Amino acid sequence: MKRHLCRLIACAFLLAPALLHAQTFPTKSVRVIVPYPPGGITDVMTRTVALEMAREFGQSFVVDNRPGANSILGVDLLAKASADGYTLGTVIAAHAANQTLYPKLPYDSISSFEQVSLLGTAPLILCANNTLAANSVKELVDLAKAKPGQLTFASSGIGAAAHLTAELLMTTTGIKMVHVPYKGTAPALQDLMGGQISLMMDTPSSLLPQVRAGKIKALGMASEKRVAIAPEVPTLLEGGVPVVGGTWVGLLAPAGTPRAVVERLALAAGNAVRKPEINERFVQLGIDPVGSSAPEFTRFLRAEVAKWAQVIKDANVKIDNY
Predict the structure, then answer these.
(1) pTM
(2) What average pLDDT score do residues 238-265 get?
(3) Which domain holds residue 268?
(4) What element of type H or E holds 63?
(5) Residue 227 forms part of a structural domain
(6) pLDDT single digits (tens) 16-27
(7) DSSP 296-314
(8) What Å distances lie between residue 261 and 14, 76, 167, 315, CA to CA?
(9) What's the number of domains the chain is made of?
(10) 152 — phi, psi (to 5°)?
(11) Of the candidates 221, 255, 275, which is a domain's last residue?
């Protein structure tokens, strides 16, 4: 009995500092690393949520853009930061794919971090240049089968969700197209509009303005159901192609960050995402707001790593180590 009591007292002494830290957290500004340049969907979502979290906690949340090496530079910086809750980071679907794409990744996409909250998800839209002789995903598949290896598809880079979803489209339908990777969405979209590229996948917020301006055409949405901002665009599923793919934005902390702090951060992130004005803003950007708990995000991330690992293996996607 005495031995059991002593163990309980010892545990209490060990837990006390962590509990006190969680109760008073944060007492200074929090750094949020974004491993992409300013202005993109990841940056916009991060800044929006960070501002609301700052208001809730009464401390500033400072966004630090650290782009490079398909997000690896910024994410590695996060992995090596102090595990005290004062350095966070946001990642997207590429974070899950990088685990398989880069055999010598300097961190583990799951175990090197505490998953805090899945902020939101976004489906991808498949678009074509206006001269392509296909106005639906079914017509595209027929055309690609008639002209194997002659159609091209652009992406914002090797390993991006758009690239891998297009690879999934090819393996699912048995068609062959040529991947043309670009350094970002903007130059790829420019060549799509100019007719140099046949097809492209990206987020609705990136491509829908050009669709509605008549500069490109939408063939389908890689989602389970039609999205609110583009109800006129059918899903790939409706076109007979069972492909669902998209990107997402999630909040991470370094591994070892106290569980109580992670839970406080997850709650604050969820509160931010669920604010009506933030929720509506995300929906208008083609984002499905989530604001999950930490365990929910961990399960989601594990599934994403497994999903994209299979796609990468099936499509034999290769990338040079950075």
Answers:
(1) 0.89
(2) 97
(3) 29-122+246-315
(4) strand 61-65
(5) no
(6) 455 545 678 999
(7) HHHHHHHHHHHHHHHHHHH
(8) 16, 21, 39, 40
(9) 2
(10) -120, 150
(11) 221
